[in-house]
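Hi V.,

Quick status before I head out on leave. The structure for the redesign project is tokenized and pasted below; the design run finished overnight.
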């Protein structure tokens, strides 16, 4: 069995299991849930939030989505989640990721 076929089968299995019951896309706000209800340890998320300022990582905010639910939405001083941000580097990152996927799948 080729690597592509295995990857395709794994992708189909995972996507079928991970989809919510009804189509959902947040138009305004994400649905929220506790981390544990979505299979995530909240202590691990709390540790991650504590590490951002401790290590001075320069992170403005952290949003964790699991199964269509926001389980963490944290903003780090001086950012408040309201002020707009320049997203120029996001475009480069997404383009790089897609290029990598295309090369591997190629």
């Amino acid at each position: 069995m080729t690597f592509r076929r295995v990857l395709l089968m794994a992708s189909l299995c995972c996507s079928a299991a991970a989809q919510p019951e009804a189509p959902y896309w947040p138009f305004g706000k994400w649905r929220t849930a506790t981390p544990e209800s979505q299979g995530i340890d909240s202590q691990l998320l709390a540790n991650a939030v504590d590490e951002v300022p401790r290590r001075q990582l320069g992170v403005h905010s952290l949003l964790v989505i699991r199964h269509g639910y926001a389980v963490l939405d944290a903003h780090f001083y001086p950012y408040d989640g309201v002020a707009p941000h320049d997203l120029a580097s996001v475009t480069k990152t997404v383009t790089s990721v897609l290029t990598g996927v295309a090369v591997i799948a190629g």
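Above is the designed sequence. The first strand starts at residue 31 and ends at 32.

G. will cover questions while I'm gone.

Best,
W.
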